[in-house]
Design goal:
Length: about 210
């Protein structure tokens, strides 16, 4: 309503302040620093942003599980095909054994594994993966992590600093019941220089 009432006033003069306030509130709820969090339309856009920013080379590998969201599988297959890299999914058998999950993924890594991609709560099987353990152990091996938290905010308590993923993306329009088209991407401070925007427009700084 405010946009339609006076678009210049809202978009040109007030939007930056309002977005910062909203980002600060979301960051506090998620256990994150405001400046490490940006808004996204949804978690899939966050996954694509990271995937397209990753400098993959021929023979490199992105490792994942066989419980991931189909749209994100498609994004990784597309990006890896363009680079000549491989997208490999590790079978996670049922019934689920959380105590062996991280080790199962780490055992599947190779010297060419550049990134591990996994859900926090899977969309099709509703499993909660112990991602904090995975992220800390992957970092010890120099492997980047991206966690798809599309279903986590509002379902479980989140502390993104404690999770420790290099990249964590999630939705607010699911279990936080926000307006449609509200999501976020959290990026560790030491990884922020590598992220490139999907679209360059107003607000970008060289």
């Amino acid at each position: 309503r405010e946009t339609e009432r006076n678009p210049v006033a809202l978009l040109g003069r007030r939007s930056a302040e309002l977005l910062h306030e909203a980002r600060a509130a979301l960051a506090a709820h998620l256990g994150a620093a405001t400046d490490d969090l940006i808004f996204m339309p949804n978690a899939t856009t966050g996954v694509n942003t990271v995937a397209r920013s990753l400098d993959l080379n021929a023979g490199d590998e992105v490792l994942s599980t066989d419980h991931e969201y189909g749209a994100c599988d498609a994004a990784w297959r597309f990006i890896c095909a363009k680079a000549g890299a491989h997208y490999r999914r590790v079978e996670i058998p049922l019934p689920f054994e959380p105590e062996t999950w991280a080790q199962r993924l780490l055992d599947a890594t190779t010297p060419r594994t550049r990134l591990i991609f996994a859900s926090h709560i899977t969309s099709t099987t509703a499993l909660i993966f112990p991602v904090q353990d995975l992220c800390s152990r992957a970092r010890e091996r120099g492997i980047t992590t991206l966690i798809d938290g599309a279903h986590a905010p509002g379902q479980i308590e989140l502390d993104l600093q404690a999770v420790g993923a290099d990249f964590y993306t999630g939705n607010c329009h699911k279990w936080l019941l926000s307006p449609k088209g509200a999501g976020f991407l959290h990026v560790r401070r030491d990884r922020q220089d590598m992220i490139e925007p999907l679209a360059v427009s107003w607000g970008w700084r060289a």
